[in-house]
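Retry 2 of 3 after timeout on previous attempt. Resubmitting structure tokens to design endpoint.
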């Protein structure tokens, strides 16, 4: 790129970044490349390079066949022992939750395998939709073995599952194992999270332990446009339990 082209690129990039950060709102659409090229008096390739840079910075989302939009700020999922309420409050947001399902169901093959049960064995299912500032953020589904939490389904759904396990049953979640993958939204998840079907989601499955016993198995679906994953790392230390990440409260 010659000096004139480089100057034009820097000018376009600076102005678009200023628009995205100071004028437009998350979710607002940007004009097509040809309109931006005419506005700045540069080639479409120059505009495309500037948009690519903004997308790399996470400031815009480019959806093929749909358009270019100002990205929503992503909230970090910190794998640590803090509740959803504490985490969102720390970020200056108002957390709330809606209970979607709470009761006893028959364990599927997958859930039974995670909880070391037989398929069809009864498990407590606790499914919630989490919000921040009134916007849906994630759908969480927890499964527990009934004899670990006697009487749980006869009471009201607890606002904080880990606090309830500790205070009512003396179970302190000590460590866990997470499986993290990308997936797409089903129609039902899309309706709950107010996104389109097949939009990207971050899926996290967790086995939470007290000692060597799996007390809770959970499946969480996070909006990929609102979250990024942050995992603290450290060198392993010698322990009969190994190096265990801290847990975010459910």
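Retry 2 succeeded. Sequence:
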């Amino acid at each position: 790129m010659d000096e004139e082209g480089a100057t034009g690129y820097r000018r376009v990039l600076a102005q678009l970044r200023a628009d995205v950060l100071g004028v437009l709102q998350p979710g607002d659409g940007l004009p097509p490349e040809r309109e931006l090229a005419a506005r700045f008096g540069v080639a479409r390739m120059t505009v495309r390079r500037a948009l690519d840079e903004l997308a790399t910075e996470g400031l815009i989302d480019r959806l093929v066949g749909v358009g270019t939009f100002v990205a929503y700020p992503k909230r970090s999922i910190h794998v640590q022992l803090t509740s959803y309420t504490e985490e969102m409050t720390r970020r200056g947001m108002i957390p709330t939750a809606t209970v979607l399902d709470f009761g006893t169901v028959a364990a599927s093959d997958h859930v039974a395998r995670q909880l070391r049960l037989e398929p069809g064995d009864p498990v407590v299912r606790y499914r919630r939709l989490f919000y921040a500032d009134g916007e849906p953020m994630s759908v969480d589904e927890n499964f527990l073995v009934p004899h670990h939490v006697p009487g749980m389904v006869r009471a009201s759904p607890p606002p904080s599952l880990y606090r309830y396990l500790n205070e009512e049953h003396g179970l302190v979640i000590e460590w866990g194992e997470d499986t993290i993958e990308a997936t797409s939204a089903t129609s039902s998840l899309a309706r709950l999270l107010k996104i389109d079907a097949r939009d990207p989601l971050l899926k996290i499955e967790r086995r939470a332990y007290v000692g060597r016993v799996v007390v809770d198995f959970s499946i969480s679906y996070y909006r990929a446009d609102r979250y990024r994953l942050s995992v603290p790392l450290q060198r392993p230390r010698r322990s009969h339990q190994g190096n265990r990440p801290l847990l975010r409260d459910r």
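Attempt log closed. The domain at 75-230 is CATH 3.40.1410.10 (Chorismate lyase).
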